[in-house]
Amino acid sequence: MPLKLSLKPGEKFVLNGAVVQNGDRRGVLILQNKASVLREKDIMQSEDANSPARRIYFPVMMMYLDEAGATRYYDEFVQRLSEFMGVIRNPEVLAECVAVSKHCMGREYYKALMLCRKLIDYEDQRLGNVAPGVPADRG
């Protein structure tokens, strides 16, 4: 099934490891086959992996973007997820952690990334980084 991306003017995304930027008008891109695509808002720089949940997200993102080299990032992912799960007591969040792990083991990295976003939102609310009810990725 094709993937349709609606792009804002100037929006960047990563396509199979290459950074691509849309031109000065809205655009639509249709990918006809499987590819690793990550929008600008979902790309995290290493220096932004500055909290426990973000330190889970980053290696999962790297496994998604570099599937051939995923084993390089897997050990860090396992360590960070184990640390996070060791301090969490919320059963729903723990279930999401297990689901992230299952998706990674099944090489379904994009699904794992979207669940990691929920972990980041949970962490931000618990740490007071955003007001309750306000999405953590306000843009």
Task: Tell me the fraction of residues in β-strands, as a range.
Answer: 15-25%
Shape: globular
Gyration radius over CA: 16 Å
Number of helices: 4
Report how far apart the termini are.
27 Å
* Spans where pLDDT lies below 50 across 5 or more residues: none
Mean pLDDT: 89
The biggest sheet amounts to: 3 strands, antiparallel
**Domain module count:** 2
In short:
Strand 2 and strand 3 form a beta hairpin.
What does it look like?
The protein is of the alpha+beta class and 139 residues long. It has 2 domains: 3-42, no CATH class; 46-127. Helices cover 47% and strands 15% of the residues. Strands 3-2-5 form a 3-stranded antiparallel sheet, with no helix packed on it. A hairpin with a 2-residue loop joins strand 2 and strand 3 (18-21). The radius of gyration is 16 Å and the shape is globular. The protein starts with a strand and ends in a 12-residue tail after the last helix.
